[in-house]
Design the sequence.
């Protein structure tokens, strides 16, 4: 029994899915929060004694805040710009030319803010970001109170952020230093792909990642041609090159892996790497369907990502959890290939583990940050709710999200953003929309 | 220019997607409604002259109401009861035993009302229903003001509705007669499957369907074993048996067809039959992925259905449209296999055609019933909206639905059910939930 009023506040809910222990469902319990962290989970009847402030959510379920383990947040400004192109053409004919015309620090700040707003409304409390101008993305996330793993980009090509690999690494490490003591912002190394990265750079990244114990995220084996393209360009496949640099270990976050064959999956499993599954993006860009059931059977950790809004076109991690479960059932012939509790674990704890944050977030456990999402499980879209995890994944969807807390701060309340200026957000989107459209038309006319 | 105040009301919207002509997007137009029908579509500037009442939806898109071309509405009370079983086990070990314990006229009335509420909130204005006690379903739909194609079940087994095929047909035809002059309720013949239906019954249904020009809906080639099971039981495959009875024609509505091979698809195409694609159900029950791209290339009309909530677990037709587009792209390698305008046509006009209702609903065209859905295309989930059809299918989802009209009646306004007692709906769900749970547990314990 906790002491009287030891918590800053308590949230009571009809159900709590703590994710740890796996499959647990608590009824009529409360999460006690103090100093931004989870103090305890107790029966609701004890909440009054433990906290002066009680937030009651009587028809609701509390889950850990969702972890979007792969996105390009600022690309929200390029939403709807993907338009029916397969991955390679989408990148070369549409996205890269658009980025060359549009992307600057303001684009990244405005696009990231829009993405943060969308993600919070959908129950996402942490995102892993891979984009240009990561300083702008980190600043926007921290200002909004959202948790983020911000990528330090390492590219061979110059951009407005850096001229060469030396400068990319230097600026990335400066960013990492800057946020060392910030509870919201983590940093990780991000490569576009092994293909686009030299062996020398892979080795440098490996050394630095080992020193910092920072994750290394890269797109890997996304589309059918990837393996052969690497072999032509580098003499080895992309996974072999990562292995050659010593990067296939538990810091590796390999995004997509749609085309990974059994031998490649075995090596990812042996190294302890994480795969981030982005099922909507993979289908929409005609990359295919990742062999997730096989990955899970082999013991590979699989987290979930939305990818960027330009190829999705939404940052809805609950939709990814549902789609992952559906695709696994439909392609494996096993209707329970990804049970709903597992789908939720992939959307929370597995993402936290991928980003090296599982000691701090990803489940509702004492000592972790109070990163929480709350969904209303009532109404004609959800009634009768006879299985909470199924209802969250297969009936409710993000429209049911009513509240989010990040580090105990109440960022979404009653389905609305509590601390962001939504009118300003809308105005900025309206400013960008015609510029994106004009750029799209200019590129199409080239 | 219409005469002054010729319309009962007008709805102005930033965009209108009439579906006919294909791909059209009208900006700042108004739909004029008189006597429940669409009178005209005019520039918004002319709406004031044409109508005393103007309903303004300035950030919104108007589309034809969605047509859910296959569901078992009353099974909404069995939501979340599917729980990770593949189709055959799901039916035999879970659904059929649950139905034997629970289904009566009240179950069908309450379940259908819940389904109608969910569907209207998601922009669905017409549904094709296949279930027991169709009189109860028809009554509930008509009372709610929703449009429905109600199935006249034809089974070889006795049920509470009828004892033998004679009685099924007699009661079905009585129902059809009863609603002959009702603008909201249509009837069609529904078979569980060719497998479960004798050749003699197939022939009788064919004769009656031809006389009434009524659609004949049946599950067809849903799971891997279906073809062989029919061959063992009847000496021929299910499509051959339908052909033998003369049922493969433009009245046939063949649901699922996940396992149809090229020869079978060619015969469906030659007959002019419609396929109803239920992608979520097919994945969730581990049936597989229907070859929709091939169907469409062969000229087969493909409509969309949610199937019942017991195997989905939601009646969200926009989600089916999105999933259909994603699966077609991901499995065909053609990212534009189902462009967003086509996905919306499948969810509206193709469903109307399947049900023989395309002269009355399915597009925003003068003379058709004013069955309309309105979605708000603004906010952080959707901004910036640079392609309206893409935004509807891939970003907005049913959470953006603000309004529905059926035959000009405003059934959903500002995201809320305007004419249904939602408190009573919730109470009924709460009454049923423990009964369903108890029955589920009793069956599991057998």
Sequence:
């Amino acid at each position: 029994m906790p002491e009287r009023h030891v918590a800053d506040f308590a949230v009571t809910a009809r159900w709590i899915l703590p994710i740890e222990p796996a499959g647990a469902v608590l009824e009529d319990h409360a999460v006690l929060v103090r100093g931004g962290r989870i103090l305890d989970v107790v029966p609701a009847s004890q909440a009054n004694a433990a906290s002066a402030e009680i937030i009651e959510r009587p028809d609701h379920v509390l889950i850990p805040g969702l972890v979007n383990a792969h996105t390009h947040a600022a690309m929200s400004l390029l939403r709807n710009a993907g338009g029916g192109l397969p991955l390679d053409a989408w990148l070369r004919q549409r996205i890269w030319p658009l980025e060359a015309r549009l992307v600057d620090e303001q684009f990244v700040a405005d696009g990231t803010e829009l993405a943060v707003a969308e993600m919070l409304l959908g129950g996402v409390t942490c995102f892993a970001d891979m984009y240009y101008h990561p300083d702008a993305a980190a600043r926007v996330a921290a200002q909004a109170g959202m948790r983020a793993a911000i990528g330090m980009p390492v590219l061979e090509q110059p951009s407005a952020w850096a001229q060469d690999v030396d400068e990319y690494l230097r600026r990335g490490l400066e960013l990492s230093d800057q946020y060392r003591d910030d509870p919201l912002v983590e940093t990780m190394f991000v490569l576009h792909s092994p293909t686009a990265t030299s062996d020398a750079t892979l080795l440098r990244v490996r050394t630095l990642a080992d020193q910092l114990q920072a994750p290394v995220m890269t797109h890997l084996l996304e589309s059918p041609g990837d393996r052969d393209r690497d072999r032509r360009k580098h003499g080895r496949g992309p996974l072999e090159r990562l292995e050659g640099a010593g990067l296939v270990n538990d810091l590796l976050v390999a995004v997509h892996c749609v085309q990974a064959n059994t031998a490649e999956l075995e090596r990812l499993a042996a190294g302890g790497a994480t795969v981030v599954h982005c099922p909507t993006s993979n289908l929409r860009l005609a990359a295919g369907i990742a062999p997730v059931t096989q990955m899970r059977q082999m013991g590979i950790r699989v987290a979930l990502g939305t990818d960027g809004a330009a190829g999705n076109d939404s940052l809805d991690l609950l939709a990814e959890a549902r789609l992952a479960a559906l695709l696994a059932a439909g392609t494996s012939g096993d209707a329970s290939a990804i049970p709903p509790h597992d789908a939720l674990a992939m959307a929370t704890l597995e993402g936290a583990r991928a980003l090296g944050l599982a000691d701090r977030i990803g489940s509702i456990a004492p000592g972790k940050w109070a990163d929480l999402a709350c969904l209303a499980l009532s109404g004609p879209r959800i009634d009768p709710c006879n299985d909470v995890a199924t209802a969250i994944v297969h009936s409710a969807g993000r429209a049911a999200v009513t509240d989010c807390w990040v580090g105990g701060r109440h960022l979404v309340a009653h389905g609305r953003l509590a601390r962001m200026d939504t009118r300003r957000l809308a105005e900025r989107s309206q400013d960008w929309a015609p510029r994106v459209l004009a750029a799209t038309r200019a590129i199409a006319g080239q």
Summary: Chain A touches chain B through 72 residues (CB under 8 Å). The longest strand of chain A covers residues 54-64. Chain A has two domains: 9-64+362-414, 66-354. Chain A has a mean pLDDT of 96.
